[in-house]
Design goal:
Length: 204
């Protein structure tokens, strides 16, 4: 499971580059790896911002802030600022930037969590990172360029996706698989549709 946590993100990034029409420039990629390494090292030594007390709200909040949501939202927000100030050249690729950013974090987490052997941390959390990193930009594209009838559902889905991912982590941590599995499936839907759409467009 440590191998999965270590290799999943780099392998999925290569897969994403093969199905995505957006070609991220080397400039943005270098910044993603550098800033992601700094963020991963800082969190590794600083530790958790939220101290979870058990299975309740503090555990869910810790999933949002420390484990699942915030580590992926941060690179997406940084890339948005870079795009607004035109600090990056080439075609925008929010997903590629976010994936590169969290690759160092995945490597450190694989080492840190390896002794525990917990599949929730070593398998589920990287999957949820990927779901957010690819799902939110896909939904954002619908909001900006999609038909009007699809924009409101995309906004609602974009707001719900981070909450679904954090709640899926919380449910699996509580070993409530009947709740966790549907939430995980819902979290992965934008990722799956975005990858399928990219692969279809590349075949045309």
């Amino acid at each position: 499971m440590s191998i999965f946590c270590l290799l999943w993100l780099p392998l999925f990034y290569l897969f994403w580059r093969s199905v995505s029409p957006a070609g991220e420039s080397g400039y943005g990629g270098v910044w993603a790896l550098l800033l992601g390494s700094v963020a991963a090292i800082f969190q590794f030594f600083y530790g958790a911002f939220i101290k979870p007390g058990g299975f309740g709200f503090s555990r869910w909040l810790s999933g949002c802030v420390d484990l699942v949501v915030a580590p992926v939202l941060l690179p997406l927000l940084v890339y948005l600022v870079m795009a607004l100030f035109r600090l990056n050249s080439g075609t925008l690729d929010f997903t590629g930037f976010a994936l590169l950013w969290i690759i160092p974090m995945g490597a450190l987490r694989a080492v840190n969590w390896g002794a525990q052997g917990d599949p929730v941390l070593l398998v589920l959390v990287p999957l949820l990172w990927t779901a957010i990193a690819a799902g939110l930009p896909f939904l954002g594209g619908i909001i900006l360029r999609g038909p009007w009838l699809a924009r409101i559902p995309a906004v609602l889905a974009g707001l719900a996706l981070p909450l679904l991912a954090a709640t899926a982590y919380w449910a699996f941590f509580r070993q409530d698989h009947r709740l966790g599995l549907p939430l995980l499936a819902l979290s992965l839907i934008p990722l799956g549709v975005g990858c399928a759409q990219g692969a279809w467009n590349n075949r045309r």
